[in-house]
Design a protein that fits this description.
The protein is an alpha/beta fold and 484 residues long. It has 2 domains: 223 residues, Alpha/Beta hydrolase fold, catalytic domain (Rossmann fold); 182 residues, no CATH class. It has 14 helices and 10 strands. A 10-stranded mixed sheet has the order 1-2-3-5-4-6-7-8-9-10, sandwiched between helices. The protein is globular and about 60 Å long.
Length: 484
């Protein structure tokens, strides 16, 4: 799992002249092979109207589904630039992450956090990627019992438990493939083509783009297909270019390091009464997890911890809730996934996109990764191991590719201790993007950097690039906030 910045309880984040507001949709653009750059799209004006939320205007754009003549509709939102005509620089597409994150309202929520001059200069464009929200949403049905609580122990120990774990993964895959016959076309490669059609509908020669978390992966995939159409691109909290299963495993190890840091931090806060040393806090944690009963069991607890670890502002509320549970018997906060339409769609898209993007793992690789995590820690957090489901998925039709020798340099922003998208993976992605610069927020333990942690060094560098096109001369290091 990658944290999504506008998903409730599972995540974190003037008018311009009429000619600048004109948006023109794609009509009749054939699906091209993934190794080619698509021809320019024909376009006609979009009909914008009210959104189902405040602060933006919305429209729909038809795009080809896959092979054949079928199409789906992509939901788009627009928050107009607030500045003068002389300040206007066009459209800035934004994506909050996922895969599976709805981006329609993100144009409003992220737009409010962007530096003022960026808001004055750009229309902020959000969209629901294919398979998400109001863009042909996916639903995997029961997803192998994912929405039943308490869920089974998520960390299998022993061959029998490992076999049962694989059976649950197969059931998840079967449910997704049975309910979504077009799953192969819900890939990041397909979504990147949709992004280019949005660009054409906006009347923009180049794509200006801000992608957070999985959005960074989408931006890099767009550059692989359309290098000559890349404009100013900020990729924040960067996903690695690795196979999704390998990314999930690396993230799980990073979560163990982050949890150790959390234990040390809790031990230094005597008001919680959870232990005076890291080991004592660990013992309290393990005992609490083992004693959970009812609909909130170890799997739900791990889900809550996974969410907590991604952002340090969640540490204090988690520690207070855990303290109240240990000392007063208070219930812990509910944990996703829940059986509401939004959550069902998110969980379905999360797995479907990952499995459509990269080579599937074998059963031995899935169990090998779990055993390696158990060897490192008897209680690993495997909440983000969605790509294990891909062991029972067909091989992808269009595996994701990243970067291109002919693309212009772009800007990456990254926290050095981000457990959700670890720094080493971000550097591997940087190596795929020729000339890219990275702004690293040193001594930061949270996921999401630009217009998220309110760090002037990061925000000024990214805003300067978006406004002028000028990148830092070299990679830049900014001082972060440290622990809470």
């Amino acid at each position: 799992m990658i944290i999504v910045f506008n998903k409730p309880d599972n995540s974190l984040e003037g008018c311009e002249p009429e000619v600048m507001r004109a948006l023109r949709p794609v009509v009749a653009l054939a699906l091209l092979a993934p190794t080619l750059t698509a021809a320019p799209a024909a376009a006609e004006p979009l009909e914008f109207g009210p959104c189902p939320f405040e602060g933006a205007e919305c429209a729909n754009l038809p795009v080809p589904l896959g092979e054949g003549n079928r199409s789906i509709s992509i939901a788009i939102s627009r928050v107009p630039a607030t500045g003068t005509p002389g300040e206007y620089r066009g459209a800035l597409l934004v994506n909050p992450g996922g895969p599976g994150g709805s981006g329609l309202e993100y144009a409003v929520s992220k737009g409010e956090k962007l530096p003022e001059q960026v808001r004055r200069s750009y229309d902020i464009i959000g969209f629901d990627p294919r398979g998400v929200g109001r863009s042909a949403p996916l639903d995997c049905g029961e997803l192998g019992g994912l929405f039943q609580h308490p869920a089974p122990e998520p960390v299998p120990v022993g061959e029998r438990a490992e076999t049962q774990h694989l059976h649950r993964l197969r059931a998840m895959a079967d449910d997704c493939l049975r309910n979504n016959p077009d799953a192969a076309w819900m890939s990041t490669t397909s979504t990147a083509r949709d992004v280019d059609r949005v660009r054409a509908a906006l009347g923009s020669e180049k794509l200006n783009f801000l992608g957070v978390s999985y959005g960074s992966y989408l931006g890099a995939a767009y550059a692989a297909q359309f290098p000559d159409r890349v404009g100013r691109m900020v990729l924040d909290s960067v996903v690695s270019p690795d196979r999704w299963h390998d990314f999930d495993a690396r993230q799980a190890f990073a979560m163990l390091d982050q949890r150790d840091t959390l234990f040390e931090w809790i031990a230094a806060q005597p008001e919680f009464g959870l232990g005076e040393t890291k080991q004592q806090v660990r013992e309290t944690y393990s005992t609490t997890r083992a004693r959970l009963t009812g609909s909130f069991g170890p799997a739900e607890f791990d889900n809550l911890v996974y969410k907590t670890l991604s952002r340090t502002e969640r540490w204090e509320p988690f520690a207070r809730d855990l303290s109240a549970h240990v000392h007063q018997g208070a219930p812990l906060s509910p944990a996703l996934p829940e059986d509401d339409p939004e959550s069902r769609n998110y969980e379905a898209a999360l797995r479907t996109v990952k499995c459509a993007d990269s080579r599937r793992p074998t059963e031995d690789e899935v169990i090998g990764s779990l055993r390696a995590l158990r060897a490192a820690d008897p209680e690993p957090i495997v909440t983000g191991f969605e790509a294990a489901t891909c062991a029972y998925w067909p091989e992808p039709v269009e595996p994701a590719r990243f970067g291109h020798p002919d693309m212009p340099p772009v800007l990456l922003t990254q926290a050095d201790h981000d457990p959700t998208t670890p720094l080493d993976g971000a550097r591997r992605m940087q190596a795929r993007l020729p000339g890219a610069r990275m702004v690293t927020l040193h001594d930061s333990y949270s996921h999401g950097v630009f217009a998220s942690q309110r760090n002037p060094c990061v925000d000024d560098a990214a805003a300067h690039y978006l406004l002028t096109g000028a990148l830092p001369a070299d990679d830049l290091r900014c001082q972060g906030p440290g622990l809470p």
